[in-house]
Structures are given as C-alpha cells and as structure tokens.
Amino acid sequence: MNFDFVQTLQVAFKLFWIIDIIGGLPIILKLRKETGNIHAEKAALVAGALMIVFLFIGNEVLKFMEISIEIFAVAGAFILFILAAEMILGVSFHKMEVPASASIVPIAFPLLAGPGVLTIILSLRADYSAINIIIAIIINILIAYFVMKKSGWVGKLLGETGIVIVHKIAGVILLALSIKLFADNWKNLL
Hints:
Number of helices: 8
Strand content: under 5%
Helix content: over 70%
C-alpha cells in the first residue's frame, strides 16, 4: 500500500464524476423540501463506510465466486456506460422510491454510493493502491457533505441550467471512463 498523490487525485477525479453530487442536487433539493431535513453527516458517513467496506469485502466476494477483478471491471464498464447514457440522454432505466426519512436511502445509497460507484471502486483496485482509493473516497465524501449542507446555496449559484450542464458533462466523462475501463480489461475475457 503505497501512497501516491497523483494516483489519489486521479481516483478522486474519476469518483467525483461518477458520484455526480452536483447532478444529484435536484434530488437533494427535492428531498429536503419533501422531508424537511436531510442529515448530511449521516448520509456522508454511511456512504463513505459503504464504499470503503466494499473496496475490501467486494474483492473477497468476487474471489469466492471465482470472478476476477478484470472481468468485474468489464461488467462495471457496461453499468457505467448505461449510467452515462442516462445522464447524457436524460432517460432513466430504473425508478428510485423516496422514503419518509431520506438520509440513508436514497442519499447514502444509491445516490452517493450506488451500483456505478461501487463497481468503479472495485474496478479501480486493478490499477490503484487501496490507500489512494480510500483517500479519494474521503475527498469525495467531504465534497458531497459540503454540497448537501449548502445545497440551497449551491443550487442558487448554479441555477437549473448550470446543474443540467454539469450533469451532462459528468455523463460524457463517465462515458469515456466506461470505454477506458472496458478497453483496459476486455482482453482478460478471452
């Protein structure tokens, strides 16, 4: 486990675009309006813990099922591709139900630590040291916490158009990440 500042920044940047906290801002604002309050601390802690636990346990589960990290990365590339298509095209292939208390579900999971995020976290293990991924997760959780705490201010600052633009840009970056993930790992399927 070697710390590398550049690797940490690379992972943090990749996670930032897939977590897409700015793109999720309309959901957060809606939940805040419907439920009255969002416990940003609880959501951030649960999402961060889920990501870090999955970083370690997810690999063991894959080993138990005899699935290599490279094969999982290719499967993850397909999931990321679908998520990117949703973001770019403005369509949804799944429905998110909102409970009365919105801190853990749907904010911690699946908004912050959803299937795409968990997939890329495991996939990143093929190329990056665990310590760099953990620090990148913490950086992104701190950013998400700030955005959740200041959601009204950030929403006003960006405006509806700004949020849509950031969401679309995140989709294009996510699409590129999915293609790179596939290109780096598909050879291991043969």
